[in-house]
Specification:
Maltoporin, Chain A, Immunoglobulin-like, 3 domains, single chain, 3 helices, 805 residues, 3% helix, 22-stranded antiparallel β-barrel
């Protein structure tokens, strides 16, 4: 049945590609050099004309300069004839094909003869950057995402095709091992090798989001689920320009489920405030830019009701309610200096400050709620500070697109956390606390070279990363505390990663190919306090190749079939191996594992892309095989009710599925995009030994499920200045470590009105309009099981105003 479903959707996607198709309009910059065949000297002042191949209609023209170089700008994709003419030389006429893989086409050297001689045919290829429907990258403009304006980047991603949000993490095709970049770089704001902070980064700072399912070798090898690249706003216009904005929101307007007895009220009518400012000043060779966004929110971050059942018949009812106050300030400033026509230097800095205050209550009751077993109340005071400094230099050679770039990026990220607990038991009250201080330092050096070729493009480069994170945890246990006071101390994470890569793109009228190889060496050491009762210093190193291949066959100008393969790695992040217990829950304790190893993934994909005069269709079928699957395992130890959740390598897992994206402009006022994703997740049976707090073994049977999601975005143009959006999202049941998560759905709506002659914009939106999002989970442990339902805040209404100047 599962195979039949896969075949049906794939065939449907292919057949849909043959409907009244046409290629999208794209622009390419053509260049070349004209020389005398006899003397090999450059020929200046040569007339260069570009004509359509079908009817010889003039398209554009130019004259070669003193060095024999010429440039033709803004050439659409298609087939042309290039003609060069000069007194005393025979005219040269060659066919030119402009493809779709690079914004630059270098025709190379064109030789002109003083005597008449027939030229053999020379075929050259131009290429264009990715558009929204390109198979290896999909790009989404956040200004069109009306129903999520004014929120965080994480909230904005919920409506993007192929993306789901679960446990405050983004998933692509059911996989949360995603690398998140900002302007093409890994930063501490969004995590190195993982994803963090997306729910606090304002969407108002973002121009567009790129989703790269099958990254090439020029990208870092980590992230088997793909790459999300967040492009921040930045103007390039002359003079002073920019924008200011203000978004206001209100959430948790009524209770989804009331508290258990005896705890503090849950947040209601929570405010959201997001002012933003973007300024740009450009004069001649200098471009100064500054951007500031502040997102303040109150949120019912957690409201989870849990029933734990142990094999001996004990049943515990509990609730975890967390009221959260967050203030996230992000400022970014810099200067672009065009030293001359060939050299550009950019220096920029970023400062981010994230303040989080959590006030939580967690009551524990017996099966019939006649006895309160424990009341755990806590205050979390956390300050995260990020400072980033970047210097980037680019040298442009005489032919467009031929560049050499060098960069340095330093990031400092401090995590300063303090937790204070009141632990109320039937016969005692204890005061517990702990403090964590972690300083993350990351230094990246990069060198990249790009050379357009007559039939493609060559990319090469190298990167060196040094990363070190000293961390210190101090525990202060109170009376009858569950806190393990011996598990504190100091630990230091050190990582060195040199890497080199090469990537070659080739294109003809029918065939398009990309082949690349990235080779990286990793040396990771994790030094542990020698007095730690369980863990010792550990680490790993490897020297591994990461190849990628993409081959496309162009059926015609409107249909393209593509096969791709790549190999990627997910290295454990520092928090995955961090030895210190984390007490988000009084009786469910999260701990890292210094012995955790990387997981390696081989990915295969077959895709189809097509477009027509009012839309496009994208379909793909894919398969991923993972060795050394990283997952969190929850277990108990004898004579204890505490549950320990520890990262482990769970051997092999598989992810296979289909994806279909259909965008259609129905008429002048209605457009929709429909995204269907279906996948099969499987984790093979495995056995692991958890060492903390003492050695114990866990064995799991094979888990598998067929899941997916459906997203329907409808966009309405009511008038020239008024537009709207309705988004419907359904997520099917899916696998989670040791269990499953049930289905859920939501409806988001939004309106946007342009005012003040297009310089101003008003918006209104509502997320989870009907307040239907509830997260239901089932977990099976070694001698326990638990079910949970999280009624956290999902319904939010927002209004906002933006003014451009």
């Amino acid at each position: 049945m599962k195979k039949s479903i896969l075949v049906f959707f794939f065939i449907f996607g292919i057949l849909g590609g043959f409907n009244n198709l046409f290629s999208q309009s794209i622009k390419v910059k053509l260049s070349g050099k004209i020389i005398d065949e006899t003397t090999q000297e450059p020929l200046p002042y040569v007339n260069v004309l570009l004509k359509k191949n079908i009817d010889s209609t003039f398209v554009t023209g130019s004259i070669s300069d003193e060095a024999g170089l010429f440039i033709l700008n803004d050439v659409p994709s298609g087939e042309y004839v290039l003609e060069t003419s000069f007194i005393g030389f025979e005219s040269v006429i060659i066919p030119v094909f402009v493809g779709s893989n690079s914004p630059f086409l270098n025709l190379g050297e064109l030789q002109m003869k003083t005597s008449i001689q027939e030229l053999g045919e020379v075929e050259v290829i131009g290429q264009q950057d990715a558009v929204a429907t390109k198979l290896d990258k999909k790009t989404y403009d956040l200004s069109e995402n009306i129903s999520q304006s004014g929120g965080s980047v994480l909230q904005a991603m919920q409506n993007l095709p192929g993306v789901a949000v679960q446990e405050e993490k983004v998933q692509i095709r059911g996989n949360d091992r995603i690398t998140v970049l900002i302007d093409g770089k890994q930063t501490a704001l969004t995590g190195f090798g993982n994803q963090t902070g997306l729910d606090n980064l304002p969407a108002s700072a973002v121009e567009k989001i790129e989703i790269i399912n099958n990254p090439s070798a020029k990208f870092d090898a980590n992230g088997n689920g793909g790459i999300i690249n967040i492009i921040l706003k930045k103007e390039q216009k002359q003079g002073v320009n920019g924008s200011v904005g203000l978004a206001l929101g209100l959430g948790a307007m009524w209770e989804k489920k009331a508290n258990l007895p005896g705890i503090r009220p849950q947040y209601q009518n929570t405010p959201k405030i997001n002012p933003s400012l973007s300024l740009n000043f450009r004069k001649k060779d200098l471009n100064f830019f500054i951007q500031a966004d502040n997102l303040y929110t109150q949120t019912l971050n957690k409201n989870e009701f849990v029933i734990r059942t142990y094999d001996d018949g004990t049943v515990i009812n509990q609730q975890l309610k967390r009221n959260r106050n967050t203030n996230f300030l992000t400022t970014r400033a810099g200067v672009d200096w065009t030293i001359n026509s060939s050299n550009i230097l950019t220096i920029s800095g970023l400062f981010g400050s994230e303040k989080i205050i959590d006030r939580g209550d967690q009551p524990f009751y017996n099966e019939d709620f006649t006895e309160q077993l424990r009341l755990w109340q806590f205050l979390e005071d956390e300050l995260k500070t990020t400072v980033m400094a970047t210097a980037a230099f680019q040298h442009k050679f005489s032919d467009p697109g031929h560049t050499l770039s060098a960069g340095m990026n330093y990031t400092f990220h401090r995590e300063d956390e303090q937790y204070f607990f009141t632990n109320t038991l039937p016969n005692s009250v204890g005061q517990d606390a702990f403090k964590l201080l972690s300083d993350e330092n990351v230094l990246d050096w990069t060198l990249d070279y790009v050379k357009p070729l007559p039939q493609g493009k060559l990319e090469m480069g190298m990167k060196l990363r040094r990363r070190w994170i000293p961390t210190n945890m101090q525990f202060f246990p109170g009376l009858n505390s569950p806190i393990d006071s011996l598990a504190g101390g100091a630990a230091t994470y050190r990582e060195t990663i040199p890497a080199v890569y090469g990537n070659y793109i080739y294109e003809t009228k029918k065939l398009e190919a990309e082949i690349g190889l990235r080779v990286e060496y990793v040396n990771l050491n994790y030094e542990v306090n020698p007095n730690h009762p369980t863990y010792k210093s550990d680490g790993y190193q490897y020297f591994q190749p990461f190849p990628n291949t993409r081959i496309s066959y162009k059926v015609n100008d409107f249909n393209k079939l593509t096969f791709s393969y790549n190999r990627r790695v997910d290295r454990p992040n520092e928090v995955d191996i961090r030895i210190f217990p984390k007490y988000d829950d009084a009786e469910i304790i999260k701990v890292g594992n210094p012995a955790l190893q990387p997981q390696f993934t081989n990915s295969f994909e077959l895709g189809w892309k097509a477009g027509w005069n009012s839309g496009y269709l994208y379909s793909a079928i894919y398969h991923r095989m993972v060795n050394g699957t990283i997952t969190r395992i929850s277990t108990t130890v004898p004579d204890s009710r505490l549950i320990y959740a520890i990262f482990q390598n769970a051997d092999k897992s598989y992810n296979s599925g289909i994806e279909l994206i259909w965008n259609q402009e129905v008429n002048d006022w209605y457009t929709f995009d429909l995204n269907l994703t279906g996948y099969h997740n499987q984790i093979d049976a495995f056995t692991v030994e958890n060492l903390y707090p003492k050695p114990h073994t866990f064995t799991a049977e094979k888990q598998e499920i067929f899941s997916g999601n459906v997203k329907w975005n409808s966009k309405f143009k009511f008038s020239e200045n008024l537009s709207g959006q309705v988004s419907v999202i359904y997520l099917a049941p899916d696998l989670i470590p040791q269990g499953r998560i049930d289905s859920r759905f939501s409806v988001d709506v939004g309106l946007k009105r342009s005012i003040q002659n297009g310089k101003g914009e008003l918006f209104f939106n509502a997320t989870d309009l009907f307040n239907t999002l509830v997260i239901n989970r089932t977990i099976q442990g070694n001698d326990f099981s638990y079910t949970s339902a999280d009624y956290y805040e999902t319904q939010v209404i927002r209004v906002g105003y933006t003014r451009k100047f």
